[in-house]
Amino acid sequence: xxxxxxxxxxxxxxxxxxxxxxxxxxxxxxxxxxxxxxxxxxxxxxxxxxxxxxxxxxxxxxxxxxxxxxxxxxxxxxxxxxxxxxxxxxxxxxxxxxxxxxxxxxxxxxxxxxxxxxxxxxxxxxxxxxxxxxxxxxxxxxxxxxxxxxxxxxxxxxxxxxxxxxxxxxxxxxxxxxxxxxxxxxxxxxxxxxxxxxxxxxxxxxxxxxxxxxxxxxxxxxxxxxxxxxxxxxxxxxxxxxxxxxxxxxxxxxxxxxxxxxxxxxxxxxxxxxxxxxxxxxxxxxxxxxxxxxxxxxxxxxxx
Length: 304
Hints:
Blueprint: H1 2-28, H2 31-53, H3 58-70, E1 75-82, E2 85-92, E3 103-104, H4 111-118, E4 122-124, E5 137-142, E6 151-157, H5 165-179, H6 193-201, E7 203-206, E8 212-215, E9 218-225, E10 229-234, E11 243-247, E12 256-268, E13 275-283, H7 288-295, E14 302-303
Antiparallel strand pairs: 1-2, 1-6, 2-3, 4-5, 5-6, 7-9, 7-14, 8-9, 8-11, 9-10, 10-13, 11-12, 12-13
């Protein structure tokens, strides 16, 4: 009975959004073209909704969500809102493409950050978008009810996009309304209490700006360091869940160690606007005693 009531509620909401969409389309065209514009947009919506009904598995549905939203927005990301950022599952329209499992962090006033914090639709003008690209309009929408998972879709249009922002918002809400009844995604398992305690006790030292580190034979920057892992920045692509080799700064007795990439954030260099990759890594084969001695060369930083 609850499921039937939920479906009826969603259907009623979709009907209201369709009526509002038709009115908006009529406002944005001349009187002669209004009917044609409404019919064309509704035909496109019908095709999009049909595409969303085809996938059976959750991953296939999330990929279809990215494809469908990309029909109305130039850049789209579907992923999971988690404690340490927004994890990419599927993306469309980014150059270079955002690798799956990339973790994005955005300013607190962005549409994505506001949607994640309130677990509700958020939209507006985000000049820098999700990765620093010029953006006129952005919208983020949860794909599951609060407490039922962490799936969310984010979409943005650059300056000059033809689709009216009000129409774009209505279409996005319609599509999300159609998706929600089909998704029942469990939240990711939280770290064990032992692991959390271990992480909190690890002393993390903030490095001076410009501290170098070798990342897989290429020079990068070392942001911070602990006995468990490090944060690095590189000009070259780093992918999550891959093994890398680090050589810590040579001027204090270089230390080589292997690590696994836990998270990655794709950023834009503030001066050149070229892509750079900020990554958090976890050491896999270095002795904690060696790192403790190594850390003595630096002023103690942040303890957590």
